[in-house]
Write a structure and sequence with these properties.
Oligomer: single chain
Shape: globular
Helix content: 25-40%
Distance between the termini: 30 Å
Strand content: 15-25%
Largest sheet: 6 strands, antiparallel
């Protein structure tokens, strides 16, 4: 069974990969490429269509705070972060004018999806997709639902920090899952999960230094800079894709706005760690704590 799960996750990884192409597969990397200066209309696997439709839904739900069409901006940050990590003496920030120019090509309506024919077209030649804020959680959820449809329970999927529990443990007790402390100390919280997902977005994992100051990878769609206010945002709910999208969106809004957003999803709860080290959670978070 473990090999079968790995094969399913591997299939989603290849389809949603924005950096590499694979023989015989049309994936998101294929979609981002330019041919003669234009993106091509491509027929893709239905799994890609469904994920992109879900991402568009999450864009609307989060008021644009989770936007997979921000590839032009995120790739700039990715390139500068890579240079800065490989050669710290050469570390610098992306120039503001380049970020602003890139931000003009993040209109998700320029991603045209034909559900009937399973085709996708990016009508802005300068636009690229970056699905890092939702694809992993979405894929984990798809695999979890496939296992559940087969009557398989008593599993935990943990894919790069995206945790999805499938039923309880063999003895009927919940799975014990810990939330990492951004400061590297003891776990912030332990949750007992039985069928829920837990996703954490943090500023402490992917970052680089410029003039002694850290710059992380969660970029605010309006400021075009790393979002400020929190070092960690965790979301627990019944859907791993939703938890992934919400944890990113909540990182880019105030705690008050985030609490209002998450309250619209029954059973969803959140925990924030501010840059000052304060820990704040929604009223129902304690239901899951052990």
């Amino acid at each position: 069974m473990n090999r079968e799960i790995q094969a399913l996750l591997g299939e989603y990884h290849r389809l949603f990969d924005i950096y590499n192409e694979y023989d015989g597969i049309v994936n998101l990397c294929s979609l981002n490429k330019l041919v003669g200066g234009e993106h091509q209309k491509l027929k893709v696997d239905r799994k890609i269509i469904d994920m992109l439709l879900y991402a568009k839904e999450m864009y609307t739900v989060t008021d644009g705070k989770m936007n997979i069409a921000m590839g032009s901006v995120l790739s700039l940050w990715h390139n500068y972060r890579t240079i800065g990590k490989d050669n710290p003496a050469d570390a610098s920030l992306p120039p503001t004018d380049k970020l602003v120019e890139a931000s003009e090509h993040c209109d998700i309506t320029r991603m045209v999806i034909d559900e009937k024919n399973n085709t996708v077209t990016l009508t802005d030649p300068m636009m690229t997709l970056d699905v890092g804020a939702v694809a992993k959680g979405y894929a984990v959820e798809c695999v979890a639902k496939e296992l559940e449809s087969r009557g398989i329970t008593g599993y935990v999927l943990n894919v790069g920090g995206n945790v999805r529990t499938i039923g309880a443990r063999a003895d009927g007790t919940p799975w014990k899952v810990g939330i990492e402390n951004p400061d590297g100390g003891d776990y912030l919280s332990y949750l007992g999960l039985n069928g829920q997902a837990l996703v954490t977005s943090g500023s402490y994992q992917r970052f680089y230094y410029v003039d002694g100051k850290p710059y992380h990878h969660i970029i605010h769609p309006e400021t075009l800079m790393p979002a400020v206010g929190f070092t960690s945002v965790s979301v627990v709910c019944n859907d791993s894709g939703l938890a992934d999208a919400l944890s990113t969106a909540l990182f880019c809004v105030s705690q008050e706005i985030g609490a209002e957003l998450i309250s619209s999803f029954p059973g969803a709860e959140a925990l924030w760690v501010t840059q000052d080290g304060e820990i704040i959670s929604t009223s129902g978070w304690g239901i899951y704590e052990e």
